[in-house]
Each structure stands twice: as structure tokens, then as C-alpha cells.
Specification:
29 strands, 13-stranded parallel sheet, 423 residues, 21% helix, eight-stranded parallel sheet
């Protein structure tokens, strides 16, 4: 009996030793590999942060002056930003940067590559920036925005740091607000965008860009240079005005600027106007109940207009006969070109800046806008029918500002090696 017991103990000891002989090397192996994996992850993180630093450095370089931005748009490569320089101003490694124009007008593509100081990990980031201060935005309201009744906004979004109020739940365009968007969301608590993909509206958003800083001196000079002005009453016969204005039955397709200074306002009367160019109104803009537009231009549909219609794709298809069968997703590379649409009853064709408030409503409207609106005060557009604002991408791209104000259009990681021309 004692012999059997001793035999069982011996077998158990052998089994324990056998298991230990198997497990201990495995534990040692995994312990060593964990150290290697941890080190590798640290190196990857370092390389990624270096790539991010390159994106920031490129942003600073592009915004240093308007001339620098113009050089980039003209295809002139910046020294030190052609993957030709290794920057070592940060600890942990180095990074290199490329800046090129495009893919769209007034856009630039930044490619930043980071490498850790052991030369074992490389991470890269690509970002696209646009200088169009109202890029994709048909109406930027500095104050609250109210859109209701039969008013439509096409091809571009509505953005405001203040509340946006809509007369009903609509499927287009995109809406961005740092406050509430009625009837979608009046609660600051998440979720603050439409489900499931946040493609149409964003309330209580921290991504609202600052108001654009227009180059009023340049717009003044442009208005003063238009002599004789199609509208009587301008100072010295130019399109610079220093009194309240009421305009009707005016057509001007010159593309020049109008400037109404010192807080004076503009009221449009029947039978309406058609003006191609920039209109700067330092006071209020009053649009009537009735006819206020009479132009019939062929309007260019922005290549990215389709992004405004994720929740009403069939409506966009009425503008684009070659559109996919369903909404392709905001990250899609869909990029139609050459699309146009016949305009009618157009009053403004270009930038419209309103330093005061925009008043529009009171029954049926009979006019449309093909432009980019920037309203400093409140915006009220409440006609019960007949008014559409079409986003004019060209007008937004050509806004004259006192500096370069870039907005990021896209950001994504790229898989690539360290530039071959660098050590």
C-alpha cells in the first residue's frame, strides 16, 4: 500500500515537472515578445505623432501669407515641402512633408511622413485643405437662421454658430450649428447628429469655423472702379454707395462689385434685379413678397453637391442623370463634372455679404439666388413658395479675405515607406 502511494506521488511530481518544462519557456517567450511588442507599439505611436506634427507644420506654412497660398495654387513647390527635407525639431524621430495643389481649385493636399529614431516604424497622414471660407456652404449666418415655408436651399449647406430653425423636417441640405437645430435636436446631450451616419445635420457642434474675414478694402476699390455704375446714386458715378438703396429693374452682368457702406441697407423691389458679381451690404438686406429676380443664367452644379442629399437621394438625381442608384456615402470618390442647371428668376449671382440682418418673407416669393450668402446678423427667409438659394461654388472660392483661412476637407492615414531621396 505504501509502495503504491509512493508511486502515485512520483507520477504526480513527474507530471508537474513536465508541465513546468512546457509552460516556463512559453512564459519566458511571451514575456520577451511582450516587451518587443510594447516597444514596437511605442515606436509606431511616436512615428504617428511625428506625422501629425508635419501636418501642423504644413498648415502653418500654407497660412503664412496669401502670396504663399497663391504660389501653391499656381503649382510652385515650396522648398522644404517636397519630401526633400527631414525635420528633426521634435524628439523621438523625424518627419518629411509634401504640399501640392488640388484636388480641387483653392485646395491643397498635404502628405506628412513620420519615422521613429530607430528607423523601424514609418507612419504617414494625408490631409486636404481648402481656402474657400464658405466651402460647401450656401448660407453662413452669424446670428440665428430661420428657413421655412417654400424656401429651398440646394447644392450647399447652412451653417451658424447660433440656432437654426426649419419649418419642417427636410432631407437636404446639410445643417451645421453650434446650438440647436429645430426640429431635429434641441438637447445638448449626445447624440447630436442624424443616425446612423451623421451625414445631414450636426447640432451643438464644436467644428463651426470662425466667421470669414473679408477684405473690405479690396471690395471697396473694386466698387469704386465700376464707372459708370448701372445703378444711379453711386459716389462719383461708381458702384460705391453711402446711402440706403432701393433697387429694381436692374441688370448688370459685368461681374464687378457693389458696396453699400456705413451701415446703410438695400431693399429690392419689383420687377426685380439680376446682378452678377459681389454685393457688400454693411446694413440690412430686405427681399420682398413678390418679384425680386429676373436673370436666367446657366448654373454650374458643384462637383460635391451630391454630399448634401444623403437623406433625399432621389431629389439629387433630378440634377444628375448619371448619379449612382443610391447615396454612395460621404467618403465616396464620386466626382461628376460639367453638370449644369437652368436658372430662372435669379436676383444675385455671386457673393452676398450682409453686415446687418437678412429679411425675406411675407407671402409668396418670386426670385432665386445663385451665390454664397454671408449674413452677420439674423437670417429670416419665410416665403410660403417660390424661393430657392442655389450654392455658387465659384463665388465661394473667389471670396477676397485679409488672410488665408483654411478648413480641412479630409484626413486619412496612408501606407508608404520613408521617402527614398532622404537618408
Amino acid at each position: 500500500m505504501r509502495e503504491a502511494s509512493r508511486g502515485q506521488v512520483l507520477v504526480g511530481a513527474v507530471l508537474v515537472l513536465l508541465i513546468a518544462a512546457i509552460l516556463v519557456p512559453l512564459l519566458v517567450f511571451y514575456s520577451r515578445r511582450e516587451a518587443v511588442w510594447t516597444q514596437s507599439q511605442a515606436e509606431k505611436t511616436t512615428a504617428f505623432h511625428l506625422a501629425e506634427a508635419g501636418i501642423e507644420k504644413a498648415y502653418m506654412a500654407m497660412t503664412v501669407s496669401t502670396q504663399t497660398w497663391e504660389n501653391i495654387q499656381a503649382g510652385k513647390l515650396l522648398s522644404g515641402y517636397q519630401l526633400d527635407t527631414s525635420y528633426t525639431d521634435l524628439s523621438g524621430g523625424e518627419y518629411a512633408i509634401s504640399i501640392t495643389s488640388g484636388p480641387e481649385s483653392q485646395e491643397a493636399t498635404v502628405l506628412s511622413v513620420g519615422r521613429d529614431d530607430l528607423d523601424r516604424e514609418v507612419r504617414a497622414i494625408e490631409a486636404v485643405y481648402a481656402n474657400s471660407v464658405l466651402s460647401g456652404t450656401a448660407l453662413y449666418g452669424g446670428g440665428s437662421v430661420e428657413i421655412s415655408g417654400g424656401v429651398n436651399v440646394e447644392w450647399g449647406g447652412i451653417m451658424s454658430p447660433q440656432p437654426i430653425t426649419l419649418g419642417s423636417s427636410v432631407g437636404y441640405p446639410q445643417f451645421w450649428s453650434a446650438s440647436s437645430i429645430t426640429p431635429f435636436d434641441s438637447d445638448p446631450s449626445p447624440p447630436n447628429c442624424d443616425s446612423p451616419s451623421c451625414c445631414q445635420w450636426h447640432s451643438y457642434s464644436s467644428d463651426i469655423p470662425p466667421a470669414p474675414s473679408l477684405d473690405f478694402a479690396s471690395y471697396t476699390s473694386s466698387a469704386e472702379a465700376e464707372v459708370p455704375c448701372p445703378v444711379s446714386g453711386g459716389v462719383g458715378g461708381s458702384c460705391y454707395f453711402d446711402t440706403d438703396q432701393t433697387w429694381k429693374n436692374i441688370t448688370d452682368t459685368s461681374g464687378d462689385s457693389y458696396y453699400i457702406d456705413n451701415g446703410h441697407s438695400l431693399t429690392i423691389g419689383s420687377p426685380g434685379i439680376y446682378i452678377v458679381g459681389s454685393i457688400i451690404i454693411t446694413g440690412n438686406l430686405n427681399l420682398p413678397n413678390g418679384t425680386f429676380g429676373k436673370g436666367s443664367p446657366t448654373m454650374d452644379i458643384p462637383p460635391l453637391a451630391w454630399k448634401q442629399y444623403c437623406n433625399d437621394w432621389s431629389h439629387y438625381q433630378s440634377f444628375d442623370g448619371g448619379a449612382p442608384a443610391s447615396f454612395p456615402g460621404l467618403d465616396s470618390g464620386y466626382h461628376p463634372s460639367g453638370l449644369t442647371y437652368p436658372g430662372s428668376k435669379i436676383a444675385f449671382n455671386g457673393l452676398v455679404y450682409v453686415g446687418g440682418i437678412l429679411n425675406g418673407g411675407g407671402g409668396g416669393g418670386n426670385g432665386n439666388i445663385y451665390g454664397a450668402f454671408y449674413v452677420v446678423g439674423t437670417t429670416t427667409m419665410t416665403w410660403n413658395s417660390g424661393v430657392t438659394v442655389y450654392y455658387n461654388d465659384g463665388a465661394a472660392q473667389n471670396i477676397m479675405t485679409t488672410g488665408v483661412q483654411l478648413s480641412r476637407q479630409s484626413w486619412q492615414e496612408k501606407v508608404m515607406s520613408w521617402p527614398s531621396g532622404l537618408p
